[in-house]
Specification:
By secondary structure, this protein is of the alpha/beta class. Helices cover about 35% and strands about 15% of the residues. It has twelve helices and 14 strands. It binds phosphoenolpyruvate and manganese (II) ion.
Length: about 350
């Protein structure tokens, strides 16, 4: 990381960038109110920081040890930027004073289904609409989402999602499953979701980040926190800091019956909030895999400091084509939102406790 003097000129900054590039590294330039910070992307061990520190306009040049430096609190602090980033989607602030509720069906099944649910979740108090169109499924024989029917079907489903969001005043989010879907999905949605199974796909991360839209990025169920944050860095290295991190449960332990689909890693929320300025939300639905646990896990997530929740909600959960056991009705969602808002009030604003 190179910290420039507050009176460093644009030519001096350009010169430092050129010197860094000579080592074969890229840069992330963060222009704060008081000074400019140049982050190094690549292997810093090749770099002579003593040499860079001597260049005109440079205040300090040092190595940052963590594998995820661009998203670290340390980096934001050095740049004089806020150590808690708010991701703005329209007039909704993710990471601001209020908990943000994202809700909708696991999968978009029909226009009627989507509009009924959109109306229901909006009335329940949700601010952002979710709906899967390209579904990651274990079996090729299962419903793959309407996107599985080809580009024309995907476009139609995406246009319903857009229309439902516009009608009910909610930004929309859907998952992309592969690089071939990025351009298409980016045309329609406000937030692009990268699902748990794709957390490690660095080419996908880069191509999504290049759309410069907010990204909802889910932790893989087998990933450590350091891995999750290190892969997040791929997107920030493309100059996209509008990333919402999502804890959605890790693989359960031990033999015998698993009572939950995954194990919600609650401690990951405050841990990640201490490490990075990016906001963290919880997905209680996939973590629990059971509708009767969604309320408790949502409350616990907010109590642990999550700035938002993504909850699967369906007007007729029993008939849902995907994840029918874990979807809750809009009426149940309403109770959950009321309870979570009370909890948020009790614990206070998102603090920088790190
Ligand atoms: C989803 O949100 O629709 C989903 C498939 O979640 P995850 O990637 O967390 O399994
Ligand atoms: Mn689902």
């Amino acid at each position: 990381m190179i910290i420039m003097k507050s009176d460093a000129t644009p030519t001096q900054i350009k010169n430092v960038i050129k010197e860094v590039e000579k080592y074969g590294l890229r840069t992330d330039v963060s222009r704060g109110d008081f000074r400019t910070i140049i982050g190094l992307i690549g292997d810093e061990r090749k770099v002579s920081f003593e040499r860079l520190a001597m260049l005109p306009g440079v205040k300090e040049a040092r190595m940052i040890e963590t594998p995820y430096k661009l998203i670290s609190k340390e980096y934001a602090k050095a740049a004089g930027e806020k150590t808690e980033r708010i991701v703005k989607v329209g007039d909704i602030e993710i990471g601001g004073d209020e908990v943000v509720f994202i809700a909708g069906p696991c999968a978009v099944e029909s226009k009627k289904q989507l509009f009924t649910i959109a109306e229901g979740v909006k009335k329940a108090g949700a601010q952002i609409l979710r709906g899967g169109i390209f579904k990651p499924r274990t079996s090729v024989h299962s419903f793959q989402g309407l996107g599985g029917g080809g580009e024309e079907d995907a476009r139609e489903a995406l246009s319903w999602l857009r229309e439902a969001g516009d009608k009910y005043g909610m930004p929309v989010v859907t998952e992309i499953r592969g690089e071939t879907q990025v351009d298409l999905v980016a045309e329609y949605v406000d937030i692009i979701q990268i699902g748990a199974r794709n957390m490690y796909d660095q080419d996908l991360l880069v191509s999504v980040a290049k759309k410069h839209k907010p990204i909802l990025y889910k932790r893989h169920f087998g990933a450590g926190i350091e891995e999750f944050l290190s892969f997040t860095e791929y997107m920030v290295a493309e100059d996209n800091k509008d990333i919402i991190l999502c804890e959605r449960g890790i693989l359960p332990l031990g033999k015998g019956k698993s009572y939950t689909r995954y194990t919600l890693d609650l401690a990951a929320v405050p841990v990640i909030q201490k490490e990075t300025y990016l906001p963290v939300i919880i997905d209680p639905s996939h973590a629990a895999g059971r509708r009767d646990l969604v309320f408790s896990l949502s409350c616990a997530g907010v109590a642990a400091g999550a700035v938002g929740l993504i909850v699967e909600s369906h007007n007729n959960p029993a008939e849902a084509l995907v994840d029918s056991q874990q979807q809750i009705t809009p009426a149940e969602l309403k109770d959950l939102i009321i309870a979570c808002k009370k909890i948020k009030k009790a614990i206070g604003p998102r603090h920088n406790k790190g």
